[in-house]
Amino acid sequence: MLPRKSIIPEEFAFSPALVSPIPRKPVFRDRVNKARFIAKSGACNLSHKNIREQGRFLQDVVTTLVDLKWRFTLVIFSMTFLCSWLLFAMFWWLVAFAHGDLDPNRKPGVEQCVTNVNSFTSAFLFSIEVQVTIGFGGRMITEQCPTAITLLILQNIIGLIINAVMLGCIFMKTAQSHRRAETLIFSRQAVIAVRNNRLCFMIRVGDLRKSMIINAVVCLQVVRKTTTPEGEVIPIHQIDVQTESAVAGNSIFLLAPLIICHVIDKDSPLYDLSEMELQCSDLEVIVILEGVVETTGISTQARTSYVTEEIQWGHRFVPIVTEEEGVYSVDYSKFGNTVKVATPRCSARELDEKPSILIQTLQKSELSHQNSLRKRNSMRRNNSMRKSNSMRRNNSALAVPKVQFLTPEGGPNLAVT
């Protein structure tokens, strides 16, 4: 979901001079353009190659059919019924042929195994009637052939199994858990800002439906390529990240859009990263939201990820929940909107070692905010004075002039018109 950007209030303006007072040596590294592990839609960007044991997929046919695309599922669904009808049509034709029902010179008193089955086409139509229980009444089985009765029972049993398997696959495919996840949305950007005097990594999650997600749990992981002291290269190193509600098992009450906050402390993989170092790193933050659908009771999972280009340093999300006439209203047009705030550009480790950096940053932000307010008030006063002066000049220009008249005696007579 791409929210529309709204007008950012001027009081949230960010001063360019708001930087860390401690000079840091710039860190420049060539960032390798790599593929992300989780797409923004939640799909896993992973390709399986050189799988030798392909037979394992046939041992779980139901899951294989559910995982297939819809076009392949519908083709298999149609071909399964068509092949079963053709197979049993051939059996019915063989039964009729063995009993002599297809002989045009058969005796008139001999009754057929299946009435009105005189060709393969009629046997095929009778096979469809038996399996789908249509029963037009033109063809019917008789008591002359025990083989035909056994074949009738066998086709009914196999037909019921095919119906149960194929309809079950269709139902499972339409009721998959990721369908509910389509209405679970994440903010397009993640932000890093100061909250409660701590540097925090924050994202926003929301649910578009009124039916709730029960026992919702949010998990964060940082994925990056690492090298062990022994020289082993781990291409996908997953590091768990704790959120603010870690004591309660990360369980959230997703009634309205929430901001998920991760405090960047000494146990965080982002602890040593400053703004510049974060942009040069190749890490990816994966967000997983799990829960149970209230209406169906099916577990669902929604996923997304944030690469370094999608993490905004020194921003925070704007409020979108307001109270209107006793009802809380959520404006989803501002779901992903952010504003700049005063945030040191150094790492969380430096903030812990030198807390004065944060104090100085906030003081500069307050001074900058006061100066901007003074300038804005001054501009407003100047504009109001200019408007009042222009209005005075216009009023003086519209004043009625005095006209002098001369009387016949030659004396002046003043009159105003």
UniProtKB/TrEMBL annotation:
Instruction: Name the InterPro entries for this protein.
Output: Ig_E-set, IRK_C, K_chnl_inward-rec_Kir, K_chnl_inward-rec_Kir6.1, K_chnl_inward-rec_Kir_cyto, Kir_TM
Q: Name one GO cellular component term.
A: monoatomic ion channel complex
Q: Which parts of this chain are annotated as the region Disordered?
A: 366-396
Q: What residues does the Inward rectifier potassium channel C-terminal domain cover?
A: 184-354
Which sequence ranges are marked TM in the entry? 74-95, 148-171
Any one GO MF annotation of this record: ATP-activated inward rectifier potassium channel activity
- Positions marked as site (Role in the control of polyamine-mediated channel gating and in the blocking by intracellular magnesium): 163
Q: Where is the Potassium channel inwardly rectifying transmembrane domain?
A: 38-176
Q: Where in the cell is it found?
A: Membrane
> Which reaction equation describes what this protein catalyses?
K(+)(in) = K(+)(out)
Which keywords does the record carry? Ion channel, Ion transport, Membrane, Phosphoprotein, Potassium, Potassium transport, Transmembrane, Transmembrane helix, Transport, Voltage-gated channel
Q: How does it sit in the membrane?
A: Multi-pass membrane protein
Q: GO:BP terms for this protein? A: nervous system development; potassium ion import across plasma membrane; regulation of monoatomic ion transmembrane transport
| Broad class of where this protein is predominantly found | membrane
* Protein family according to the UniProt entry: Belongs to the inward rectifier-type potassium channel (TC 1.A.2.1) family.
PANTHER family recorded = ATP-SENSITIVE INWARD RECTIFIER POTASSIUM CHANNEL 8 (PTHR11767:SF11), INWARD RECTIFIER POTASSIUM CHANNEL (PTHR11767)
Q: What name has this protein been given in UniProt?
A: ATP-sensitive inward rectifier potassium channel 8-like
Taxonomic lineage from the root = Eukaryota, Metazoa, Chordata, Craniata, Vertebrata
